[in-house]
Amino acid sequence: MHVINSATDEQVESEIKKRTSAHAAQFTEVIPPMDCGEFRTKWVRSWHPEIVTIGELRFKSPSCYPRAVLLGLNELDIDLLRLRTELCSVADDRAFVNMTVWPEVQHFGSGCSWLSIPPSDRDFQFGSYNTGEDRPSDTSQQSTSRRITFERRYIVQPKVTVWLTAVNCGPDKNPRVRVWADDITREGFTIHVDTWGDTDLWSAGASWLAHSGVRTDVRSGTFQIQDVRLSGTPDSKTRGRVSWGAPRMEKPPRVFAALNMLEFEAGKYCRLSLYTSDVTTTGMSWNLDTWLDTVCYQAGGTFFAFDDSEEDK
């Protein structure tokens, strides 16, 4: 890892905390802490198809300050991979989201994970990207990318995670999509939205989150089915485990997890559920499950774990 002026990790982390604390001092009322959760349409309706299902997200700590809420897909039960999650509104104690499909899609169910970013912590930088910003949605393209420039330059190399918020694939071919980031510097990174094979990927959307790489109160990364099995041997239940790395976290963290890669067999329904389990101070288990006749060759996810000890004080 490259460190400016040969500063130690402790010095860099101290500087990050100092900048964050100075910004937090500007807030005179309760600052909304980092928060996360999920919504799944099966919690509010039956499996009968709907084009749009509205979900309510409840925050742990109401606040008058505006908060940023990032969304990511975590579940789908649809005949065509044409789905998006959208933030409708944010209030002091809740937010509302839409799980939306295209009119011709049979939308039996879907879900999203959500992550609320505290306005007092300026180390976090985030945003969204859609392929429609760089090409028309009536054409398919195997690779689409864009250079993202951070609003604030990082002191050290940051970590960047990305995940899916929308996918629009054509019919009759295996739906395939992957979002990822590379060329990460202190000034920015490149976000990629890819497909492969003969897939028609008309459009896709992603969210991204960056933070200083030396932070120990948060951990982030990715996982995929191929970590534990070959893509050519599909199974209805796939489970793996990730480690937070050293040092261990002070207590089991809260975890946001969303999908970043999908590949299904054409002609069958796209069914997949992502969830986490066995969260400890050293790591967590991830689960990618399908059901009925769905064939899922590949899937992957992004995780962001954080210590919410501040809420317990």
UniProtKB/TrEMBL annotation:
Pfam families: H_lectin (PF09458). It comes from the Eukaryota. This is H-type lectin domain-containing protein. GO terms for cellular component: cell surface; protein complex involved in cell adhesion. Residues 126-145 are annotated as: Disordered. GO terms for biological process: cell-cell adhesion. GO terms for molecular function: N-acetylgalactosamine binding; oligosaccharide binding; polysaccharide binding. Residues 146-211, 250-306 form the H-type lectin domain.
